[in-house]
RNA sequence: GGUCCCAUCGUCUAGCCUGGUCUAGGACACUUGGUUUUCAUCCAAGAAACUCGGGUUCAAAUCCCGAUGGGACCGCCA
């Protein structure tokens, strides 16, 4: 019986360099790679490209790890660190690169270049002004082996260049389709500073080969790099992976999204209180759609419906309003317990609440806040929340003793101070009659007793009969100190009778 | 400057491959109305686009060519 060929395992990777906070575009590329691997029963790998020792920092590697885990795009492989998968790191593979570097040197496919940076820069400038492509002229490739040996023996500063074949490189791309580059327009590229320090183009090719990466899904900005990397692959006889270059995420002016014009760090979106579900959904939709009218996707739904073929070729402007909208949706979808848990750190960080070590007791201005009460507060604002951080400005008044607002805020339409006072006194009188001990202190009861009184009040004052604002507005401001809030009764119920009446009295004092 | 990529409402996009059903659909944002004490949610409605010019065809958003515009890359960064 004929032995069947095992289908090649699908292996994808995300390869960020830890030279700064993780970019939102990296998150999208990671997502694409993650989904593609999942869809094909493959493996998704995290590789830290930290060959630039001067700029790479461990803290950024840590942030990449934290961010990827936060997103839920966990990788499937890596060195064992305490029973978990760590990331692969290029900085730990210098010996591997050296081996391959020597091979290229021996086969005369790479050579030492002794040109100084100043010399190169001058040539580049000259080429630019002459209107030709600024490429390396291959000067050192023409050095005799004696000259080269002598330079090396003298310890003359050098780099290693790869001999770029002057031919056309054509490759297929899942998103861009057929792409062709004329390599005659590119000079020999520097692939290593020295035998111990290999550079980007080289390490990428070696690692993708050694890690058996089957599909390289990365940003559009790498499109022209791909041609070069293919040439290096060919020099070794490595198989060519399948490429997919996703379009860029753009600033509103349609330039590549950059930190100068936009918030690009995933960490800062996390901090503002965007949910991973929302970020995932939003970045997936940025440049992709299923061809149906469905727009809400969980990660597992994306695993079913996403396809690289349907990814746009053009870049997509990062539209924060859409993100906010999606985030609001996912916030509204959260259970109240979960949402409270998510909001709590923001309230604590703002100094509105304190949480004690046992995590059982939450305190605001010396008073204990029960979990139930906190949940009621969060519930009252759930629909108004676009991002978690907003919970602070929305609900701060619940946790304060004294409210600070301008007297004018109490005014509804053209009410005079004395009319506002009458209105508040009415609230005070009616609400004071409710008995909190017997459970009368609730929204329903308040509506029941106060609404008919409002009607009478309006009639007596010859206000429009159905406009409850003449009572409700001053009450809202008295209780919240804000012009926009949840229902005054909802606030009153949470605040309790004592605090409610105190705030009404405080408001009356202002008039 | 060179090379490559791209081009539908303000934005994300459907439609393009396989021309007619497109009076170009949806979503966000915006405007108006409804619900409502405010804001938000929710519901309803509205305004809003095929970059331009040629060609092919009975017929072009859709196919072809060109122009224009935008972007990316051209490093001893990744």
TrEMBL record:
Subcellular location field: Cytoplasm
Motif ('KMSKS' region): 256-260
Glutamyl/glutaminyl-tRNA synthetase class Ib catalytic domain sequence ranges: 9-324
SUPFAM superfamilies linked to this entry: An anticodon-binding domain of class I aminoacyl-tRNA synthetases, Nucleotidylyl transferase
Gene Ontology biological-process annotations: glutamyl-tRNA aminoacylation
Gene3D superfamilies: 1.10.10.350, HUPs (3.40.50.620)
GO cellular component: cytosol
GO molecular function: ATP binding; glutamate-tRNA ligase activity; tRNA binding; zinc ion binding
Residues reported in the UniProt entry to bind ATP: 259
Keywords (A to Z) from UniProt: Aminoacyl-tRNA synthetase, ATP-binding, Cytoplasm, Ligase, Nucleotide-binding, Protein biosynthesis
Keyword Ligase included in the entry's annotation: yes
Catalytic activity: tRNA(Glu) + L-glutamate + ATP = L-glutamyl-tRNA(Glu) + AMP + diphosphate
Pfam families membership: Anticodon_2, tRNA-synt_1c
Keyword Protein biosynthesis applies: yes
Entry-linked InterPro entries: aa-tRNA-synth_I_cd-bd, aa-tRNA-synth_I_codon-bd_sub2, aa_tRNA-synth_I_cd-bd_sf, Glu-tRNA-ligase_bac/mito, Glu/Gln-tRNA-synth, Glu/Gln-tRNA-synth_Ib_cat-dom, GluQ/Sye, GluRS_core
CDD domains (alphabetical): GluRS_core
EC number assigned by the record: 6.1.1.17
Enzyme class: ligase
Domain Aminoacyl-tRNA synthetase class I anticodon-binding: 339-508
Protein family: Belongs to the class-I aminoacyl-tRNA synthetase family. Glutamate--tRNA ligase type 1 subfamily.
Biological function: Catalyzes the attachment of glutamate to tRNA(Glu) in a two-step reaction: glutamate is first activated by ATP to form Glu-AMP and then transferred to the acceptor end of tRNA(Glu).
HAMAP family listed in its UniProt record: Glu_tRNA_synth_type1 (MF_00022)
Subunit description: Monomer.
Protein name, as recorded: Glutamate--tRNA ligase
Lineage: Bacteria, Candidatus Staskawicziibacteriota
Gene symbol of the encoding locus: gltX
């Amino acid at each position: 019986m004929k032995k069947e060929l095992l289908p090649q395992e699908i292996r994808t990777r995300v390869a960020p360099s830890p030279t700064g906070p993780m970019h939102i575009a990296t998150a999208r590329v990671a997502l694409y790679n993650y989904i593609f691997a999942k869809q094909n029963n493959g493996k998704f790998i995290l590789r830290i490209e930290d060959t630039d020792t001067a700029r790479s920092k461990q803290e950024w590697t840590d942030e990449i790890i934290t961010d990827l885990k936060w997103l839920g795009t966990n990788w499937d492989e890596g060195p064992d660190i305490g029973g978990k998968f760590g990331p692969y790191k290029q900085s730990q593979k210098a010996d591997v690169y050296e081996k391959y570097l020597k091979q290229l040197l021996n086969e005369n496919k790479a050579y030492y270049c002794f040109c100084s940076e100043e010399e190169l820069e001058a040539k580049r400038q000259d080429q630019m002004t002459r209107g030709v492509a600024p490429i390396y002229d291959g000067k050192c490739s023409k050095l005799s082996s004696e000259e080269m040996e002598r330079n090396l023996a003298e310890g003359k500063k050098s780099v290693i260049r790869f001999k770029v074949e002057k031919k056309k490189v054509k490759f297929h791309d899942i998103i861009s389709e057929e792409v062709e580059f004329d390599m005659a327009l590119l000079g020999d590229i520097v692939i290593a500073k020295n035998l111990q320090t290999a550079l980007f183009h080289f390490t990428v090719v070696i690692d993708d080969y050694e890690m058996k990466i089957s599909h390289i899904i990365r940003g559009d900005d790498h499109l022209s790099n791909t041609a070069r990397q293919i040439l290096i692959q060919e020099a070794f006889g490595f198989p060519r992976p399948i490429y997919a270059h996703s379009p860029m995420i753009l600033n509103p002016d349609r330039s590549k999204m950059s930190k100068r014009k936009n918030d690009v760090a995933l960490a800062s979106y996390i901090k503002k209180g965007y949910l991973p579900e929302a970020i995932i959904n939003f970045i997936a939709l940025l440049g992709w759609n299923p061809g149906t009218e469905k727009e809400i996707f969980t990660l597992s739904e994306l695993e079913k419906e996403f396809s690289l073929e349907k990814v746009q070729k053009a870049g997509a402007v990062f539209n924060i309003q859409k993100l906010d909208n999606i985030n609001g949706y996912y916030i509204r979808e959260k259970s109240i317990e979960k949402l409270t848990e998510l909001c709590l750190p923001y309230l604590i960080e703002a100094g509105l609440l304190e949480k004690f070590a046992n995590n059982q007791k939450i305190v605001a201005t010396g008073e204990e806040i029960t979990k139930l009460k906190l949940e009621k507060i969060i519930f009252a604002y759930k629909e108004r929340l676009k991002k978690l951080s907003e919970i602070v400005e929305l609900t701060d008044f619940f946790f304060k003793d004294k409210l600070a607002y301008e007297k004018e805020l109490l005014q509804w339409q053209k009410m005079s101070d004395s009319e506002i006072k009458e209105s508040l006194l009415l609230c005070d009188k009616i609400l004071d009659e409710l008995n909190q001990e017997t459970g009368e202190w609730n929204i329903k009861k308040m509506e029941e007793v106060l609404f008919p009184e409002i009607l009478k009040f309006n009639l007596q004052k010859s206000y429009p009969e159905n406009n409850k604002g003449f009572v409700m507005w001053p009450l809202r401001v008295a209780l919240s100190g804000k012009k926009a809030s949840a229902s005054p009764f909802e606030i009153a119920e949470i605040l309790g009778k004592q605090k409610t009446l105190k705030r009404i009295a405080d408001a009356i004092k202002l008039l």
